[in-house]
Amino acid sequence: MTVVLIGVGADQSNSSPYPQIYDDGSFEYVPIPEAYPSSETNTFGTISRKSEVGHLQKTTRSEDTLADVLDEIKPRESKGDTIRGADINSHQIHWDPNFSKFTYGEVKTANKNQIRQLDPEQNDVLAFYTGLATPDSGTPHRYIIGYFTVNDIVDFEPLLGENPPTNDDGRVIVSELDSDTRDVVESHLSTHSKNSHAKRYSESGTIHPNLMIVDGGAPGELLGRGYNISHTVPGGHAFTEDVEEQLRVVSTASHRETGFLGGFKKAHRLDLSGQEFIDIVTERPRY
Predict the structure, then answer these.
(1) Domain residue spans in the chain?
(2) pTM of the prediction?
(3) How many CB atoms lie within 10 A of CB 113?
(4) In the prediction, which pLDDT does 116 show?
(5) What are φ and ψ of residue 65, in 5° steps?
(6) What count of other Cβ atoms lies within 10 Å of the Cβ of residue 79?
(7) How far apart are CA 104 and CA 126, in angstroms?
(8) pLDDT on residue 219
(9) Which residue from 113, 97, 38, 112 is spatially nearest to 215, judged by alpha carbons?
(10) What tens digit of pLDDT does each residue of 56-76 get?
(11) Is the predicted pLDDT of residue 285 greater than 70, yes or no?
(12) What letter would DSSP give residue 105?
């Protein structure tokens, strides 16, 4: 019985300003901008800025989209890409996690190590937190924003073998794998075709060499109200003492104290059953 908490969503490294949380606890879940070719059809200009249905939803009202809350996005900050103004409307979102399809892709080794602790047979839960700021404050805090029950975990790294063929971006060229390996990889990508990383593959024919895909199901949702878990400390954010105790935080991807949430968003493992976690974040609003 385990819950893993992963940091996701737009932040100062890839967009501005910070997504907001409001007095009633409702919030804007802003995915990161897509940084690679993808078959994703949703853009910042097609998704509503706030959701009331348990996942991001499309909108036809141009004044009520994610693009309206953003001044700029940086799909690949390391390459100096910055997109502003009306061009944000047409830029694809990297819809990950996707709470309408209950799927998530991970490429960071430290986060994957935590996800490996999850057991689909035990109804373990993968949960997500992000940075949100109130309208009158530029200082963000960390909030749990959603979760889903884990059904399947596929780690592509061992499937690819040693030294798979890669392009200039270090992404694996699936068509150049040996036929047996390619068949296995393509089969998994087809099974998990709604995942954002599978959508990258369908457009480019490449995947990240460290890719892990987690698919799930109900119970799961994008929460209607954010669940505040942090306070600011030197160097970033940390769990508040009461939340750290309530969520029974037992490990973290950081080398620092267990409760440190980082300047960047770290992964954490919680000693809770899936149902215990769901009861806490849905029945006891904290914002």
Answers:
(1) 3-153+215-283
(2) 0.93
(3) 14
(4) 96
(5) -110, 170
(6) 9
(7) 9
(8) 96
(9) 97
(10) 888 866 668 999 999 999 997
(11) no
(12) E
